[in-house]
Amino acid sequence: VHVLGAVSRPGLYFVPTNTDLVKLLTVAGGPERNTEEHFVVRKSDESWARLELPGVKRDKASFQVDFKKLLREGNYTSLTMSPQDVVFVPAAEPLISSGTARTVSVLSLVM
Predict the structure, then answer these.
(1) CB 110: neighbour CB atoms within 10 A?
(2) DSSP one-letter code for 77
(3) Which pTM was predicted?
(4) What is the bridge-based pairing of β-strands 86-89 and 11-12?
(5) Band of pLDDT at residue 35, cut at 50, 70 and 90
(6) What are the Cα distances from residue 22, in Å, to 35, 65, 99, 107?
(7) Which strands sit side by side in the sheet containing 62-66, from one edge to the other?
(8) Cα dist from 10 to 2, 29, 36, 45, 70, whole Å
């Protein structure tokens, strides 16, 4: 399973059968602090197609997973991973770019 994006240890993971999404993210070091709440999971099979869980929505060929909602309300153990699946954890966009922050800091020192 490929784990990409804002996790502590992104990469390719060979996981046992029936490893769920939460266990996989734990093995990958967990999401970093600056992540979006919604992750994207691209399944290589139809194992999630009929699941109806809080926080999981199908979006054409992938699934949007609201991780916090899933942990609070859902039975995430049914979200098992398969070979060739891809999990993408997007980083949250900063409110101010690093260039803007530097400019503001320099101007503060000058004034």
Answers:
(1) 6
(2) G
(3) 0.79
(4) unpaired
(5) confident
(6) 15, 11, 35, 45
(7) 11-12, 2-5, 86-89, 38-42, 62-66, 56-59
(8) 8, 8, 16, 22, 21
Condensed to tens digits (0 to 9), the pLDDT of residues 61-103 reads 899 999 888 888 878 888 999 999 999 999 887 655 555 555 4
C-alpha 41, offset from chain centre: 8
Q: Are 51 and 79 in contact (CB under 8 A)?
A: yes
**3-state percent helix, strand, coil for the chain, nearest multiple of 5:** 25, 25, 45
Other CB atoms within 10 Å distance of the CB of residue 23: 17
The alpha helices in the chain, defined as continuous H runs, are 21-27, 67-73, 98-110
